[in-house]
Design a protein that fits this description.
4-stranded antiparallel beta sheet, alpha+beta, 29% strand, 25% helix, 1 helix, 5-stranded antiparallel beta sheet, 9 strands, 219 residues
């Protein structure tokens, strides 16, 4: 009599291979999902830090500002047509900041007693938040330096600094002396700035939004 074989039949082998394949796929899927979630969490944390420090920089400049300007007052040969204009909808903010010398001393106009004013313009271009500085040339020993678009930048007029990338939103709300919302920059006594960043990671968008509010100290 022929004894039954102690090995696996072809059917049993196929079932075992199929089960092993399914388990492997499940393990790979779980591992990929875990890795993807970890990377997304890391990206979100990095963007949150980036948004915070960018907002802190903007808020500090605004806190020291003399005014929020509806349009640029100082001449800017590199302004976009038809010119700069403060607009939350257009992601453009113009602030007038007292001119200072190399020792951070405010430079005053002896005729009026008022400080000379430089202009700082925050604007969004192709997902990049940039900062344009317009120096008041009438202020003697003004430490500020006018900046220009990268395409026309020179040693005398360096390119506008890039504050952060992956920006999908740069908006602000102006508040008057009664802390009521206003659309008139001349009435603004404080401002709430909101910055939104977004980056695609593992096929999914990771979005971070942060806001900070500050008062215009030098008004």
């Amino acid at each position: 009599m022929i004894k039954p074989s102690d090995g696996m039949t072809i059917v049993e082998l196929m079932i075992a291979v199929s089960l092993a394949a399914i388990i492997s796929i499940l393990m790979i899927t779980v591992s990929v999902n875990f890795y993807g979630n970890t990377i997304r969490s890391q990206v979100a944390a990095e963007m949150a830090v980036d948004a915070h420090f960018t907002l802190r920089s903007i808020v500090e400049d605004t806190r020291l500002a003399r005014s929020i300007n509806a349009t640029n007052i100082l001449a800017d040969a590199s302004k976009p047509p038809p010119g700069w204009s403060t607009s939350s909808a257009d992601s453009t903010l113009i602030i007038g900041s007292p001119a200072t010398d190399a020792d951070k001393n405010v430079i005053y106009n002896s005729s009026t007693g008022d400080p000379y004013i430089n202009e700082v313009i925050y604007y969004l271009e192709n997902g990049i938040l940039k900062k344009r500085t317009i120096k008041n040339s009438a202020a003697v020993n003004n430490a500020a330096k006018t900046t220009c678009p990268a395409a026309t930048a020179t040693g005398a007029c360096p390119k506008d600094p890039e504050l952060t990338r992956n920006v999908t939103g740069f908006s602000f709300t102006m508040l008057d002396i009664n802390n009521a919302q206003t659309t008139n920059p001349s009435l603004a006594r404080s401002i709430r700035v909101t910055l939104t960043l977004q980056k695609n990671t593992f096929g999914e968008p990771v979005t971070i939004s942060n806001s900070l509010t500050t008062k215009l100290r030098n008004y």
